């Protein structure tokens, strides 16, 4: 049997709730074989980030090239890249060596509020990375940073900002409205075909560490399975499937009891 292979290019989270650890758990939970390229080591736990040690850009690119020389990758998820040099190297490799649909989670700020990316890296994401991205998945603060505008404060502002992001080069944009509050968490998907709104009841929990990583890696896993089956991703149903998975992981996250801050979601909810 040939496996659907998903690749994550992201940083490491020692607490296991975010970064490549969350990505690999999500890939496995959703039936994709996970591969990983490290961009940074972080010193963090559920309460915050105390340090970031980046991998040199050239070695990040070497990891990706070496992997693609041997392994067929059906979809790629991009997480914390950290520096402008890493962003440019990754963008250049993916432009030259396509590795399936690219889901880009432009990680800039951790759930704890810690800044994880430099301003020149934000600029490089905008100019170099978005044109090779198939689905961009920013939250409200990240969308504002990429557009250099004030963050959205209402659901009605999501679609115009997502449409503006689409004009920067990605094939599709999923703007996540979780920061807006309210009884429901509302996301907006914008593609060339139009605008689709998706919502789920908000889960009352502090186990929210890694939600962005988990959603984007779920999308990559589902896209990898679609590509293996010979289909191009239809993002609207894949978004619903990924949101269903994340919703269950959020509901069950409190059962884990990991850490004393923002605990992780439960990537294997219903499985153990």
Give a concise summary.
Helices cover 38% and strands 21% of the residues.
Descriptors:
single chain, 272 residues, alpha/beta, 6-stranded mixed beta sheet, 3-stranded antiparallel beta sheet, 8 helices
Question: Could you walk me through the main structural features you see in this protein, from its secondary elements to its overall organization?
Answer:
With 272 residues, the protein is an alpha/beta fold. Helix content is 38%, strand content 21%. The protein is built from eight helices and nine strands. The protein has helices spanning 19-29, 57-70, 84-96, 119-129, 140-147, 158-166, 211-228, 235-253, and strands spanning 5-12, 33-45, 48-54, 75-78, 102-104, 135-136, 173-176, 184-191, 194-201. The strands form two sheets. The chain has a six-stranded mixed beta sheet. Strands 7-8-9 form a three-stranded antiparallel beta sheet. A hairpin with a 2-residue loop joins strand 8 (184-191) and strand 9 (194-201). The two termini are 25 Å apart. The mean pLDDT is 94.
In total, the number of strands is 9
Order of helices and strands: EHEEHEHEHEHHEEEHH
Categorize the overall geometry: globular
What is the mean predicted local confidence, pLDDT?
94
The percent range for helix content is 25-40%
Rg, alpha carbons = 17 Å
Q: Please give the alpha-carbon distance between the first and last residues.
A: 25 Å
* Global structural class: alpha/beta
Number of helical regions: 8
The largest sheet is: 6 strands, mixed
Point out poorly predicted stretches. Answer: none
Strand content bin: 15-25%
The strand order across the widest sheet is: 3-2-1-4-5-6
């Amino acid at each position: 049997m040939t496996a659907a292979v998903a690749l994550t290019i992201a940083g490491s989270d020692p607490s296991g709730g975010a970064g490549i650890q969350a990505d690999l758990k999500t890939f496995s939970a959703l039936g994709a074989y996970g591969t990983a390229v490290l961009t940074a080591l972080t010193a963090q736990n559920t309460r915050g980030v105390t340090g970031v040690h980046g991998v040199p850009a050239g070695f990040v690119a070497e990891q990706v090239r070496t992997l693609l020389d041997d392994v067929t990758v059906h979809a790629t998820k991009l997480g914390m890249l950290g520096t402008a040099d890493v962003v440019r190297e990754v963008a250049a490799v993916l432009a030259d060596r396509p590795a399936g649909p690219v889901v880009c989670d432009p990680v800039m700020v951790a759930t704890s509020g810690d800044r994880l990316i430099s301003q020149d890296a934000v600029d490089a994401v905008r100019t170099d990375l978005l044109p090779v991205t198939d689905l961009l998945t920013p939250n409200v603060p990240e969308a504002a940073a990429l557009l250099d505008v004030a963050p959205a404060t209402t659901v009605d502002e999501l679609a115009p900002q997502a449409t503006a992001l689409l004009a920067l080069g990605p094939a599709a944009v999923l703007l996540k409205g979780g920061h807006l509050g309210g009884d429901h968490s509302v996301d907006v998907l914008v593609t060339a075909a139009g605008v689709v709104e998706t919502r789920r009841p908000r889960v009352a929990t502090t186990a929210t560490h890694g939600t962005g990583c988990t959603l984007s890696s779920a999308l990559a896993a589902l896209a990898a399975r679609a590509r293996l089956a010979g289909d191009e991703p239809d993002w609207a149903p894949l978004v619903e499937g990924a949101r269903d998975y994340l919703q269950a992981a959020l509901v069950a996250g409190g059962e884990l009891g990991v850490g004393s801050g923002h605990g992780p979601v439960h990537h294997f909810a219903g499985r153990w």
